[in-house]
Amino acid sequence: MYKIHECDFLPAGGISIVFSDSIIDSDKAIWSLLIEREATEEELEDNHYLENVGDTIWQTVLEIYNCPFCGQTLSSERAKNAAGNFAHIDSSGWDSKRL
Ligand SMILES: [Zn+2]
Asked: Would you give per-residue pLDDT tens digits along the chain (99 residues)?
């Protein structure tokens, strides 16, 4: 299950809003704000684990109910203190590490 919130107000580069059950360990699919850092040419030279410009170096994901940019409600299952699951995934080494 993977959906993307198409948003006119999304900042350019590195930020997306996705609906998935596999990014944050969760029983069900949830909406989350995904912040991604992609490798530049320079970083490729410094880090031999990265192969291509645009490879993900790290990702931070946070469960959300609304789009923080346009304000659209994404999940109707809003409950007090229930959201806020988050994860940080470091892909700069040989293995992706979930921190
Ligand atoms: Zn939006």
From this structure: 889 999 999 998 899 999 998 877 777 889 999 999 999 999 889 888 888 998 899 999 999 999 999 999 998 877 766 667 888 999 888 777 877
0.85 cut: is pTM over it? no
Q: Which residue has the tokens 């912040």?
A: 35
24 C-alpha vs ligand 1 centroid, how far in Å?
Answer: 20
Query: Ligand 1 centroid vs 69 CA: distance in angstroms?
Result: 5
Give me the residue label for tokens 């992609």.
Answer: 38
Question: In this structure, what are the phi and psi dihedrals at residue 27, rounded to the nearest 5 degrees?
Answer: -65, -35
- What is the token pair recorded at 34? 């995904």
Instruction: Tell me the residues surrounding ligand 1 (ion) with CB < 5 Å.
Output: 7, 67, 69-70, 72
Can you tell me the distance from the alpha carbon of 63 to that of 19, in angstroms, rounded to the nearest whole number? 9
